[in-house]
Amino acid sequence: MGWDFAFLADNPVVRTKRFGITAEAKSVRYPVRLLRYWFGYHLLRVEADRLGRPMDVAEVGVHTGQFLEFVKSTPVVPTFARWTAVDVVMLEEKLRKAGYDDFFEANLEAPDFALPGEYDAAVMLHVLEHLFEPEEALRKVVSGLRAGGIVIGGFPVLPGMLVQSREAAVRKTANLHTGGTIHDVTEQLHPTLKNAAEYASRVLGIPVTGLDFLVPAVDGPDYVIIEANERPGLANHEPQPTAQRFVDLLFPLTATAQVSP
Question: Domains of the chain by range and CATH?
Fold first, then answer.
């Protein structure tokens, strides 16, 4: 392909603390995430050369803005007329530091979602694997592209032969009576997990439901929902006021607000 690999291994920007990749990834010459950025960058560059003019790009699912920061650290940066950050939760301060200046906060899974204009390219490097209906989301994004526009997307996979080497042994169950423990991680919870739980509850039509997630990290966006309970236990959620909120839901007129003296 004639695409430059050297800057991927030697790029000092992606190995700074602010860029945010793990120490383990920094020790590898070609981390998987950076390979995705490398492919995405070169595809954008080829498209920019084809168009022969500055591109309008919509990046859906930007999180902390690593991809644009990576693109701007490359030896030859394509010219962009507009680069719009699209996400359900916009970390605007971090994104501005990464070089973003156009923001559109919206839920891709909302029925009325639409991009805020027409674009030459849509980037979806960290999105499709987290959606309940990825095909519908793609349809909505594609409708905002100009004729001949491109979508750059994907999600990480591992060959079966490598999976076992990356999986740690865990308990068969995590119930309290089988030795599991409870930890409150509300403040560390990634917004993607919160949105997925709320969406699943709405789809099921159960306003109070207990959802069992399998996640590699509570502060990351990756998850699998394995079970929904229509009668979840309300105890053991300290310090969160779970039982109180349930009573308030059943009897809204009894809900009281704390009044400051």
Answer: 6-153 (3.40.50.150), 183-232 (no CATH)
